[in-house]
Amino acid sequence: MSEISKEQVKHVAHLARLALSDEEVEKMTKQLGDIITYAELLNELDTDNVEPTTHVLELKNVMRKDEPREWIKSEDALKNAPDKKDGQFRVPSILE
Length: 96
Hints:
Helix content: 25-40%
Number of strands: 2
Protein name: Aspartyl/glutamyl-tRNA(Asn/Gln) amidotransferase subunit C
Keywords: ATP-binding, Ligase, Nucleotide-binding, Protein biosynthesis
Family: Belongs to the GatC family.
Strand order of the largest sheet: 1-2
GO molecular function, one term: glutaminyl-tRNA synthase (glutamine-hydrolyzing) activity
InterPro entries: Asp/Glu-ADT_sf_sub_c (IPR036113), GatC (IPR003837)
Strand content: under 5%
């Protein structure tokens, strides 16, 4: 990749809604250029026999299996409800 220009830095700063002074543009141009140069070193690595990965750590699901089972009956759930109507909990209205 070619060197990053001041115009590119200003364009990216504009897209990110950043107000950069001329001094900051100079500094960012050098820093971003250094980052790109360092990242280009990765192109020199031999990755022919390296299997692609999506995560560096092995991930596994720690959730329990979702299996149907007997659940509480609605009558039992409503047994201690302070206010109920038509088989449902009744709560105070929060909208006027």
